[in-house]
């Protein structure tokens, strides 16, 4: 499959994002506002959610729901070392995996 040739495009139109159709964008902004390890926790939750969706364990809309739930339950802490980020990642993954098995996410 050939890539898009940007040199052939005469104009580009950028529209506001439909936040209803793309709820994960607001989650990303929320994680950035929270700061600290919140973006790492959101990323970990999203990766678990996508894997669960691909495995047929949750529905497509469950991806954003699971990520939101993990971010809502996450207690943000400052990041000083790589170990801080890795621990946040592990904790968020554990919570997300637990939620996949105990919460209905369609």
Average pLDDT for all residues: 92
Report the major sheet.
Answer: none
Determine the structural class based on helices, strands and strand pairing.
mainly alpha
Number of strands: 0
Q: Radius of gyration, Cα only, in angstroms?
A: 17 Å
End-to-end separation in angstroms reads: 33 Å
* H/E element sequence: HHHH
Uncertain stretches: none
CATH class assignment of one domain: Mainly Alpha
The CATH H-level homologous superfamily of one domain = RNA polymerase sigma factor, region 2, helix turn helix motif
The helix content is 55-70%
Per the CATH scheme, the topology name of one domain is: Rna Polymerase Sigma Factor, Chain: A
Classify the beta-strand content into a percent band: under 5%
- The assigned CATH architecture of one domain is Orthogonal Bundle
Counting DSSP H or I runs of 4 or more residues, the number of helices is 4
Highlighted features:
single chain, about 110 residues, Rna Polymerase Sigma Factor, Chain: A, 4 helices
Describe the structure in your own words.
- The protein is mainly alpha-helical.
- The protein has a domain at 36-106: Orthogonal Bundle (Rna Polymerase Sigma Factor, Chain: A), CATH 1.10.1740.
- The protein has helices spanning 23-34, 38-54, 62-73, 82-102.
- The chain is globular.
């Amino acid at each position: 499959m050939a890539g898009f040739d940007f040199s052939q495009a005469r104009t580009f139109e950028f529209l506001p994002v439909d936040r209803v159709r793309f709820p994960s964008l607001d989650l990303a902004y929320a994680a950035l506002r929270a700061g600290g390890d919140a973006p790492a926790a959101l990323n970990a939750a999203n990766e678990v959610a996508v894997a669960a969706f691909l495995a047929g364990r949750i529905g497509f809309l469950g991806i954003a729901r699971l990520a939101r739930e993990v971010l809502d339950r996450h207690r943000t802490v400052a990041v000083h070392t790589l170990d801080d980020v890795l621990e946040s990642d592990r904790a968020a993954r554990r919570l997300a995996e637990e939620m996949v098995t105990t919460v209905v996410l369609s």
